[in-house]
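Open question from group meeting: does this chain pack into something compact, or does most of it stay loose? Before anyone orders reagents, we agreed to write out a predicted structure and look at it together. Recording both the input and the output here so the notebook holds the full record.
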Amino acid sequence: MVHPGTRAGGVVDADTFRPPRALGVIVGGAFTVWAAFIALVAGVLAGGAAVEPTTFLAWVVVALFAGVALLFGWWTLGVARLAYQIDDDALRIRWAGGEVVVPVVDIQRVVPGRTVGEESVTGLNWWGCHIGRGVASSLGPTLFFATHNRPEDNVFVVTPGRTYGLTVPDQVAFAEACSRRLIVGFEPGEPQRSEPQGFSLLPLWRDGDVWFVFSLVLVGLGVLGGYLFTQYPDLPALVQIDFPKSTGIVRVGERSELLRIGAVGGGIVAVNLALGFILHARERAAGLWLLASAALIQAVLLGAAIVAFERA
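C-alpha cells returned:
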C-alpha cells in the first residue's frame, strides 16, 4: 500500500492498494509459456514437413496456440498491474488496459469478506486471478477484480448499482481511506464507468465491424491454405502452367510454383491488416475497406488456385 499525504486545504492525496499478485502472475505466465511452447514446436515441425493436409493442421495449431499465448500474456499483464487507487473523486480499479472508475459519492459501505459468505466468480478464474462477474451470497451480483485464495481475503465495495469484490490485505486501512473520501466528496459525481488507457484507447477494439471483417479474412486465408495443402500432394512433379489461358502461352514448371498463390495471399493479408488497423484510428471507413479488400482478395486467389490446379 502507498500511504497518502495531505495537501494544503486538508485535501487528502490518493491511496494506492495492491493485492497479492505473485501467484496469479506465476500461473498465468505458466499458461502463456505452455501455449507459446506448443505453438513453437508445431511451427518447427510444420516448417520442415512436406506440403500435405497434416502439415496444414500443424499450422492451424500454431495459429490457435499463438493466439492463446497472446491472450494469457495479456491477462497475466493485467494481473500484474492490478491495483486500487482512491482519491477525492473516485475509486479507480486498474486492470489490464484500462480503469474502472467508481465515484466516491456512490460508495455506500465497505464490507469485509469474512461476513459475506459464499462467493462464486464467472470469468477469468485461476489460482491468484478471479476477474469477472459473480455472486456474493449476502450482497448479490458482484464484479470481482480479485486475487484471493480465501473469501475472507476480499473486501466488498457496495454502490447503488453494483458491488465490487477486491482483494485488499489491509482491509482496515482501505475502509478508512474510503470513509475519509466520503466526508470530502459530498457533491454529485459522474457515473460509474470503464475508461480505456494506452493501447486500449484505439477505437478498433470496440468496433464490431472490424472483428467481423477480420474473422472473414482469417476464414478466407484458412480455406485457401486448406485447399492448397490438400490438393498439392496429388499433383505430378512437373505441371502445365497456362493461367491465364487467354495468353496462349503454355509453360511446364515445378508444382511448387503453384504454392506462390498461398504466399501471395498471406502477404496481402499481412499488409492489409497492418495498414487497415493503423488507418482505422484516423479514418474508420478507409480502414474497413482495407480489411474487407483482404477478404475479397482471398476469394479471388481461391478461385485462381482452383482453376490453376485443375489445369495443371
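Observations to bring back to the group:
The longest helix spans residues 53-80.
Residues 22-80 form one domain.
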